[in-house]
Amino acid sequence: MGGRVTRVFRNFNVENRARREISKEKPTAAPRHPTAQLDAMADHPEIKEEVLRKDDRFLTLLKDVYVESRDPPVQVKDGGGEHLPRKQEEKRLTKLGHLEALDVKKVSKGKISIVEALTLLNNHKLQPQIWTAEKIAAEYSLELKEVNSLLEFFIPFTVQEFPKKTKKAI
């Protein structure tokens, strides 16, 4: 409903408004600043002809010019002891089970791989008395606070199979 009303007002007297806009005097462009080169070339066609003409004497001199370019030899700076200090990360071998082919072999201390995370979560779920947060932190070189957060917020999936409903059970 609203579209019809707005269309009526929008199309009202369109032709007269368009004619009025077309018949208005067009604004004149701002005057351009005269430049020395354009004015000189426009006034004197012999200068324009001189610029466009090829000079045979200069062409022969240009053909005699041969430029040979060589890169300077590359010098390798021997910094000696000027290297920036690097943080040496301590690495540990991962504790892999039957999924050894799927995982990385070395991990930085304080971090665990995905397979290790799934393994420790599953171990904690199956045997929480044995796999406590303190034991997991010591086993995988993790901080206790991070292990507690991991055990609290991440839970591995459990697969549950329900028996098929038979016609007798229904």
Automatic annotation (TrEMBL):
Pfam families membership: UPF0240
Region annotated Disordered, chain positions: 17-44
Biological process per Gene Ontology, one example term: mitochondrial respiratory chain complex I assembly
Signal peptide coordinates: none
Basic and acidic residues bias (residue ranges): 17-27
InterPro entries the UniProt entry points to: NDUFAF4 (IPR009622)
Any Gene Ontology CC annotation: mitochondrion
Annotated family: Belongs to the NDUFAF4 family.
Binding partners and assembly: Binds calmodulin. Interacts with NDUFAF3.
Protein name: NADH dehydrogenase [ubiquinone] 1 alpha subcomplex assembly factor 4
Organism: Atrichornis clamosus
Gene: Ndufaf4
